[in-house]
């Protein structure tokens, strides 16, 4: 049965989009049909990790939401990023957002039909026969985010070991529980290597009464890569890649 996984954070700068791309890629490498949809319409960017740019993108999620095309026209097969090590029939597809200033301004000015977005989720899963659909959300609590959380089988909240993140995540956890999210997972990102990871995991799980799926160490290697590719595919044996593989096991178990 297909699953919808929303990956969310209360604040920007948590590495949410980067983690979404890496998690989705690893799931696809395990032989699943995976979709990724960028609903961070105000600040899109996940398409860069999959090698797409304005020259290769014709239709976007924006065009679908404005009634200019069916959502399948905004889908791009990015399976080539998985390179040659694909098990069975694993594949990955992306629905990007427009990075054009006029389009972003229009979204901020006019908003869009949230119910149509949900219909798009369903059509994507049906048309492409997806096993998993990953939704890269806009940070914070907006109407669009709340609707995404409501329809998700799994909500993964990304936070950093930072007091502002801790407070904001507490609010989001409370909202997710009120929305009766079937499964709530936490991932702690950008953690300094001199932290006691076990102690941090216990503290966070105790605070939010939710499982920590993974702790991602801070690394200059991510900065060096500069979003030029998907980290886990470039450095499969790196501690970060191993931590993300552990998160994937929580999702597909």
Overview of this protein structure:
- This protein is α/β, with parallel strands linked by helices.
- It has a single domain, classed as Rossmann fold, CATH 3.40.50.300.
- The protein contains 10 helices and 8 strands.
- The protein has an 8-stranded mixed beta sheet with strand order 3-4-2-5-1-6-7-8, with helices on both faces.
- α7 (197-208) links the parallel β7 (183-191) and β8 (212-217).
- α1 packs across α10 (239-252).
- It is globular.
- The chain starts with a strand and ends with a helix.
- The model has no long low-confidence stretch (mean pLDDT 92).
- InterPro entries: AAA_dom, DNA_Partitioning_ATPase, P-loop_NTPase.
- Residues 3-175 form the AAA domain.
- This is CDP-3, 6-dideoxy-D-glycero-L-glycero-4-hexulose-4-reductase.
In a few lines, what is going on in this structure?
It comes from Mastigocoleus testarum BC008. Helix content is 42%, strand content 18%. It has helices spanning 16-29, 61-65, 101-110, 114-128, 143-151, 163-178, 197-208, 220-225, 231-234, 239-252, and strands spanning 3-8, 33-38, 76-77, 91-95, 132-136, 154-159, 183-191, 212-217.
List keywords for this structure.
253 residues; alpha/beta; Rossmann fold; 10 helices
**Helix share, percent:** 40-55%
What overall form do the CA principal axes indicate?
Answer: globular
Overall tally of structural domains: 1
Q: Mean pLDDT, as a whole number?
A: 92
Number of helices: 10
Tell me the strand order in the biggest sheet: 3-4-2-5-1-6-7-8
Structural class, from helix and strand content? alpha/beta
Low-confidence segments, ≥5 residues, pLDDT <50?
none
- Note the beta-strand portion: 15-25%
CATH homologous superfamily, by name? P-loop containing nucleotide triphosphate hydrolases
Task: Note the gap between the termini.
Answer: 13 Å
Pfam family, one: AAA_31
Protein name: CDP-3, 6-dideoxy-D-glycero-L-glycero-4-hexulose-4-reductase
